[in-house]
Amino acid sequence: MISGGCQPRRILELDRVDAAGPFAGGPRAGDDGRVDDEVVRLARPRPGHFDLGTGYHGDVWLDLDALFLRPAALQPYVQVLADRLRGHQPDAVCGPLEGGAFLAQAIAAELGAAFLPAARGPGPQPGTATSYLLPRVPGGISGWRVAIADDAVNAGTAVRACAALLRGRGAVPVAVAALIFLGPASAAVAQDIAVPFYAVGALHSQAWPAGQCPLCAAGLPRASPG
Ligand SMILES: [Zn+2]
User: Fold this and answer.
1) Spatial contact of 177 and 81, defined as CB atoms under 8 Å apart
2) How far, in Å, from the CA of 127 to the mean position of ligand 1?
3) Which end of the chain has fewer surrounding CB within 10 Å, N or C?
4) pTM of the model
């Protein structure tokens, strides 16, 4: 039963973890060693061998449509991420479509900030990363402080693409926020983008570039995400 009544526990702060990520000693959050499992359950994680559609293969599939089915259930998480991002004084929140943009819009509304949806670019080839496009903004976004939000961050291809697009427009990425952190693949995202990374829930999974996937090498058939 989904309810809007659960309150997130401590938030993960991934800018302070070492290269092994928060899974080096098991998932942990803040300083009490616990993470929020409920937000992960909302995404109905399924183990297997999947083409993540980002140029990577992984061993967990998340039903991100289910995650956004009942926005009221996500509101406590939106609130806690917005509270954490407020300290970075973002002018805008950017999120890749689809789920990342849903989260970004909700956080932007909480903060009174602008919303920058990153639309999928034309014609990604199977097995390669999706490209993204930012909307035109009157007067441009040069000098804007922008937080990047995504529903789930695994290898981080979408948030890395958003950071590069924003910097290309002269904006300044100030933080990344996610509902679910999939480690250890995403442990390097904060270091690569060089901003703090906040997540509400965490799930251990592995992801590999499609051409280096050990599950493919072992001959495991890929499961259908549907
Ligand atoms: Zn594979």
Assistant:
1) yes
2) 10
3) N
4) 0.83
